[in-house]
From TrEMBL:
Any GO MF annotation of the entry: O-acyltransferase activity
Family named by the database record: Belongs to the transferase hexapeptide repeat family.
InterPro entries documented for this protein: Hexapeptide_acetyltransf, Trimer_LpxA-like_sf
A GO cellular-component term linked to this record: cytosol
Lineage: superkingdom: Bacteria
Protein name: Acetyltransferase-like isoleucine patch superfamily enzyme
Membrane spanning stretches: 12-29
Amino acid sequence: MQKFLYKIDYVLQRFLTSLLFTFPIIKLVKKAYFFVRFKTTYIEATNNVVITNFDKPNQNSGITFLGKCVLSRNIEVDICGGIIMGKNVTISDHVTIQTHKHEYDGFSLYENKTSSSSLEIGDEVWVCNNVIITNSVNKIGKGAVIASGSIVTKDVEDYSIVAGVPAKHLKYRNKINYGKA
C-alpha cells in the first residue's frame, strides 16, 4: 500500500508542476499541495519537479526546509535517506538528488537490496544546471556553488565552488557580508 501511495504522490507532483500550474490563480493549488505534503510554504517549485521517496520508506525518509528553496525545471529529489535544506537554496534545471543506492556485492541483483544516507544542504547553496548529487554525499556546505554538469560524489565544504565529473574543489567564494557595503 505504501508503494502505491508514493506512486500517486509522484504522478500528482508531475501534474501539479506542469505548465498549467504556472498561471497565478491555479498556482495556489500547487502551493496548497506542497504545504499539505511537506508542511511548509518555503517551496517555490516551477515545472516538472518531484520530491518523493524513490525506494522503500524507512525512519529517515523525509525532507525538512529551514527556509526558502527555489526548485527550477525537471528536478527529481529522492528523500529516502532524509534531506535537510537550508535557507535560500537554489536548485537549477535538470538536477537529480539521490539519497539511496542499489547494493550489488554479495547479493543477487534480483533481491533489489538498497541502502540510504542522509543529506544536508546548507544555507545559500546554488546547484546549477544538469547536476547529479549521489547518495555518497552527506553534506553540501553553506554558500557552496556546484557548477553545471557536475556529478557530486563527496561532501562539499562551506563556500566551496566545485565542478567536474566527479566534482572537484576549484576555489572558495568570498563569504557573504549581510548589511555591509
